[in-house]
Amino acid sequence: MKRVFVLFSNLVLSIFFVWVFSIWSDTFVSYHYPSVVVSEADAQVNYSHVKTALTDLAHRTDSLIAIQHQEPGEDGKTRFSYTPFGNGELPEDLKKKEIQDPSTVGVEANYFILKGSVTTQKLRNTLSQIGMTNLWIIQPTPLSNLARIFTNGFQLLSIIIFFLTFGSLCLITQIKALRSAGIRLISGENRWKIFLSPLRSDLFNAVGGFALATLAFYILRHIFSLPSLSIYTASTGLLVYNLLLLGIALFFAVLFATGIKKVHLMSVIKGKIPVRGMISLILIGQLLAVIIVSFSMSQTLTYTAAWKQQEQGQVAWQKAKNYITLSASREAIDVGSLDQARPKQIKWLEFMKQAVAEDKAMLVRHHLVDRDRGSGPNSKVLTTSTVWQDYSPQGNVLIVTPQYIRQENIKLSPATSNKVNNLALGEFVLLLPEQLRSEESRYRATFEESMTNLMSTKSLNMTATVDYLPTGQKRFVYNTTPISYQQFLTDPIIIVTTPTSTGPDAINFWNNALQDYFLFNNLETAQALIKQAGFETWVNELKSGYHIYKTLLDNLKREVWFTIAGGILGIATSILMFNTMNLLYFEEFRRDIFIKRIGGLNFFGLHKNYLLAQLSVLLLGLIVSLLLTTNFAVCLLVATLFVINSILLLYRQMRHENRMSMIILKGA
Question: In the listed set 86, 109, 139, which residue is the last one of a domain according to the structure?
Fold first, then answer.
């Protein structure tokens, strides 16, 4: 059984590494080579300064340094390339970029040390001396990468479950060794040999599992074209995993070998063996199993709700496949002082103003992210309902540009439609659901004040033209954010505005909306606007909004299935641990149980103390699970199922022990 488990778990880890590295394939260099991240540079610093300084540093230290370039390809997706400084060739997985025009190269980038004696601190100092600021050193190691992979989400739960399962299997093996320990000790066999002998097979199993998983990863790496560097990290991960399995096996072997030393030989021969400490360990394992299963089930419900929310927009997004979102580069967003950032923000505002004026892009600003971020992952907002009763400025409100009205075919009166298409400075259109007609004056005053404050206008007050929309209407919000999954709002207040009507002081609003809420009509239009503005180095990626939506939807589906699998593994592990617990319990108290049974005690009378111990652990698990998940119904259900499981498995084991007792009494 242990051999099957070790081989199976190693193969699962190997496949998991393939999945992780397929996601990391474009950025895997960041997880392998040390680097310095530059997020800001003085205005006078250009690529020529960087090239001179880093080439000199590379030659002095016999090193190879490379700058990373992030640029959108013809399909809009980010393409990574590298320009080396110093002697040597780039690793085979890195694409080289020849610089034709140094003036078009941004210097706010990642700088990698690919080989040589130069340190990240020396590289940082050199970059700082030529005018780079806001520098961070990244020093990755195989262990830090493994920690990044396995210290969150279902990965952590799965690893804990694997270790608990293997620990239970080791306990069962040692219990079997205990049954013959007395006779083997009389025959002169060393106690360490008795309990360490299973380690030999564990070692062979670990070597076999490591070899099989490494071979599987090597084959899959070629099939999926993964970076060659991934072999090193995957092999390290598999090696660490198998060493930890051997460590668990060694721990229990030492525990049993030292424990049996404290018991007299005659007691061992009579069947009295030191397992009470093991029972305590199993109880702790059961506690972890309860918490893991409760957490997995709660996460499954959460991800399922998010999945259903996200899935509601599938048909609408298929009709809007062409819309493109923009991801700005580090060079485009100045994180320094306001005075340094302002010129770039003004250029972005002019860029967005042109796109809206030429009907080549639209704004769809919602407040779902703010709502969901404040409510937490297990909140009631993760439902399929699109109703939101909050009509405050930060509630059920959409701020859009005129193209949204046309795209969604929202019917307006001729006068309002004309106003939407001809907004003057300081004007916006306020479209209220019909149900709010009686409170027009209140909402007009509220949103005029809100828009004035939101747009940071100093010299004018925003004024509203009010009209009404029929109630019971669902509005598509083009949501591509990874925090909120809702795609529709029922009867939102719709505010129609433009960069021109909000004035030059609305820089912050429009810049903040650029990457998450501003959509271009199609890829060709976005590329043409960017080229016309000279923003080629300011854009990392142009990605289809539909592609972002589908990626998030697929991620949610995967999380649902992974958490379900984690829950199933947790349940299977808990059953194994309950069986192990019962074996230990009967090994320790078989004689006492037999005497009590002869005395006429019923099932609960025989096992009262044992069941109380189990119930105490399950109650503690229920409390901890509640603190972690805040889902009372799920935690109570899991605890109840564990109680029933405990009683049924104990009853089954007792019937087996009773049959064995009768066979012994009959002299069979």
Answer: 139
